Amino acid sequence: MTEKTVIQKGSPEAAFDFDTPVDRRGTGSIKWDIRDGELPMWVADMDFRTAPAIREAVERAAAHGIYGYTDIDDVWREAYSHWWTTRHGWKLSPDWLVFTTGVIPAISTAVRKLTSPAEKIVVLTPVYNIFFNCILNNGRVPYEVPLSCSRREGKLFYSIDFDALEEALADPQTSMLLFCNPHNPVGKIWDRETLAMVGALCEKHGVTVLSDEIHCDIARPGKAYVPFASVNEVNAKITVTCVAPTKAFNCAGTHTAAVVCEDPFLRHKMWRGLNTDEVGEPGTFAVPVAVAAFNEGGEWLDGMNEVVFANRAFAEDFIAEHIPGLEAVPADATYLLWISIDAILADGEDSAAFCTFLRDKTGLWLSPGTQYRGNGARFVRLNAACPRSLMEDGMDRLRRGTELWKART
Q1: How is residue 332 annotated by DSSP?
Q2: What is the CATH number of the domain that holds 275?
Q3: Continuous segment of H or E residues that includes residue 156
Q4: Same domain, 275 and 330
Q5: How far apart are CA 271 and CA 51, in angstroms?
Q6: In degrees, to the nearest 5, what angle opens at C-alpha 91 toward C-alphas 89 and 95?
Q7: Strand (E) positions, 19-86?
Q8: What is the C-alpha to C-alpha distance for residues 50 and 245, in angstroms, rounded to an integer?
């Protein structure tokens, strides 16, 4: 029997329940608009209800009955500032913030406003596939710098190839580094020294950094991420940072995020760009959701991280014990497991073929690593942000599917 996972908040009556499955079928969910009997563990949203404080904030706003034009106020700015200052050690001034409806719209705006058509934008692959959309759809060229993947103490380990990175940044057509901190899909928390080295190279070659930090609050208990722009004055001056409560608090549908720029020139350019692109104004629920998350959601987030990283540990152990040929990459951030399937692939096969086979034979839907480029063709991505019962079901399907894959004639 699955042990119930409940994080207490003062009393049993106020417990956060991360154990009870929530039926999302028929709700317009991208993740759950699937065939009967299938289990989606691909797209990066959670199968937990969001924090009670956020639900209550939405209910209060909805009860008002008028959903007119909404403005940004000091409460919104102070909520972000207080969260990053106290939780992440970055003394983020409220004046550095610009509202946007989402991190991806902000990235596309930055690409259009801070670079020119046909210029190159560096990405460290494998990386979130939508980065390529933001680059290509806006007439720019992705310049891939593959992350180094090696073994350290018997485990797969990713790091930055700084020689290759500098070669890319030195290209006269390179104008931006689109950075992922923490890194999706490999779950890497970049340390302060690494971030300083990246910043120094970008400053040396006149390259702006766009740092996507939407996964920053999903971290192993006891671990902390380092905001790219917080490292030193160089990083602060050249960086546009994208942040939001949406990934960590499972409220992506509320379309609320922020851009942080300490440098006034970059901030003005982003403000102009976001408003030109009409993604700089909040909907009715965008402000109260962010304020509730950052002012009242800390305990819920701590509980969610405990559950997610317990799920990750369960999955890693299960794979090691029951699925020969698969190997999970150790990670300190995100709820996304990055799993090597290299040992079970023959020449000419890749993770896209494996994921198609897995869904057809078992109903388990994973993300093929092919879409993240780099060495992703030999990996799959699995979402561990779900009740333990679904996690166990997913692991069993992965085991059965892998056995069927290896037994093909």
Answers
A1: S
A2: 3.40.640.10
A3: strand 155-159
A4: no
A5: 30
A6: 145
A7: 39-40
A8: 11
What contacts 56, CB < 8 A, 6 or more positions away? 292
Strands (DSSP E) contained in 189-323 are 208-212, 239-243, 257-260
Contact 382, 394 (CB under 8 A): yes
Based on the domain organization, do 315 and 290 belong to the same domain?
no
Task: Give 122's strand partners.
Answer: 143, 177
**From CA 99, how far away is CA 306, in angstroms rounded?**
30
What is the span of the domain harbouring residue 368?
A: 6-50+298-406
Side-chain half-sphere CA neighbours of 396 within 13 A: 8
> Are 67 and 214 part of one and the same domain?
yes
Question: How far apart are alpha carbons 317 and 65 in whole angstroms?
Answer: 50
Angle made by CA atoms 197, 200, 205, in degrees to the nearest 5: 130
CB 187 within 8 A of CB 331: yes
For the chain, the domain total comes to: 2
Q: Are 260 and 229 in contact (CB under 8 A)?
A: yes
pLDDT in tens, 191-208: 999 999 999 999 999 999
Residue 383 amino acid letter: N
pLDDT tens-digit readout, 140-173 = 999 999 999 999 999 999 999 999 999 999 999 9
Quote the pLDDT of residue 63: 97
Indicate if the pLDDT at residue 401 is higher than 70.
yes
Integer Cα distance of 126 and 124 in angstroms: 6
Task: For residue 108, give the H/E element and its range.
Answer: helix 103-114
